[in-house]
Q: What sequence folds into this?
């Protein structure tokens, strides 16, 4: 079995392949289009369709604007549709800034794209074209969704799940900054906030119905959710609309961006702490990952193989993932351009790549 990493950076797209998840062959930056600068433009989101193997990359050319490229040969060649695949209808008065997240299912041809400004798009042809999910765009809360420091983005899209014990092909959970968590049970026809228990210390009402600056939400194998908030780490063991519980005790800080859950063990997750909203460094200038195996009741550092010298790169919200294998691998990249991998039966990180541009997103899969 071979493994593929797709790595989006501030200056282009890279791929890495491995047979054992320890020794990696890194390729790139890939020139998505030899006729222009798209190959060296920022890539804010990547996706690997688990049904078809198609790769998607959300690019942002300084000259041509944002677009979505795809590859059907594991990243060797890339194509762009003849017309912009994601475009706002004229009556919205909006234009696409960038894509922030791709998610797949419940069938091979369905792809969701979370974008900036706050919007969700759906594709029924594998990502060649997308339509606006109008009910979320027209939601009455929209006027109160404001940009976070990272933009006005829907950055988390979780198809098929609403919380522990609640799964359905018609279900979808999204998270945005700053707006919070929203869910639909009817395929996107209606949406409701699901933020009870998540605080928003920057607002006069610290526990509003919506308006939280959620940085990332990850779904566990039992359907429960883990969330890294703008100050606060949370778990929702019941359906998300029943409330969230704080679980950051044992972490060096309650601030961060990324969260990854184990694909098979409900209580296992990885978190990547950051000092604070003002100081975007790892705590004590030591690159660290923290792991829980009991649903957030306790955390322990998993640092073997990571740099011991002072380190100043952090892990952004979409720059950590798992490959979903039976013995899963976990991966993350940093703003210092390093990428690391670890398998679930090991305690040592192995370096995949070094000295890349800022890593914005990472996705992994078996090929």
A:
């Amino acid at each position: 079995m071979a493994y593929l990493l797709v790595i989006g950076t501030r200056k282009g797209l890279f791929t890495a392949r491995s047979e054992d998840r320890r020794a990696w062959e890194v390729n790139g930056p890939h020139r998505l289009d030899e006729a222009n600068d798209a190959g060296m433009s920022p890539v804010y989101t990547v996706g690997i369709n688990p049904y078809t193997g198609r790769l998607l990359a959300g690019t942002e050319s300084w000259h041509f604007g944002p677009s979505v490229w795809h590859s059907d040969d594991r990243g060797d060649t890339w194509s762009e549709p003849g017309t912009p695949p994601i475009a706002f209808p004229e009556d919205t008065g909006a234009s696409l800034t960038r894509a922030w997240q791709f998610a797949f299912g419940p069938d091979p041809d369905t792809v969701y794209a979370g974008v900036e400004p706050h919007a969700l798009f759906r594709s029924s042809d594998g990502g060649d074209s997308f339509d606006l999910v109008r009910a979320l765009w027209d939601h009455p809360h929209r006027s109160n969704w404001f940009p976070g420091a990272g933009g006005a983005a829907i950055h988390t899209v979780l198809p098929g799940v609403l919380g522990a014990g609640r799964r359905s092909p018609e279900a979808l959970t999204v998270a945005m900054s700053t707006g919070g968590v929203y869910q639909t049970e009817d395929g996107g026809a209606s949406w409701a906030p699901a933020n009870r228990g998540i605080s928003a210390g920057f607002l006069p009402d610290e526990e509003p119905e919506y308006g939280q600056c959620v940085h990332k939400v990850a779904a566990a194998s039992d359907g429960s959710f883990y969330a890294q908030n703008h100050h606060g780490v949370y778990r929702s063991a019941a359906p998300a609309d029943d409330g969230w519980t704080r679980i950051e005790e044992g972490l060096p800080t309650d601030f961060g961006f990324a969260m990854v859950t184990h694909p098979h063990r409900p209580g296992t997750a990885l978190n990547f702490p950051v000092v604070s909203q003002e100081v975007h460094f790892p705590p004590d200038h030591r690159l660290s990952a923290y792991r829980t195996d009991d649903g957030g009741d306790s955390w322990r550092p998993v640092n073997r193989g990571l740099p011991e010298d002072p380190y100043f790169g952090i892990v952004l919200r979409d720059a950590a993932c798992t490959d979903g294998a039976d013995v899963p691998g976990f991966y993350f990249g940093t703003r210092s351009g390093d990428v690391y991998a670890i398998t679930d039966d090991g305690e040592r990180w192995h370096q995949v790549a070094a000295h890349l541009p800022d890593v914005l997103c990472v996705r992994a899969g078996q090929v």
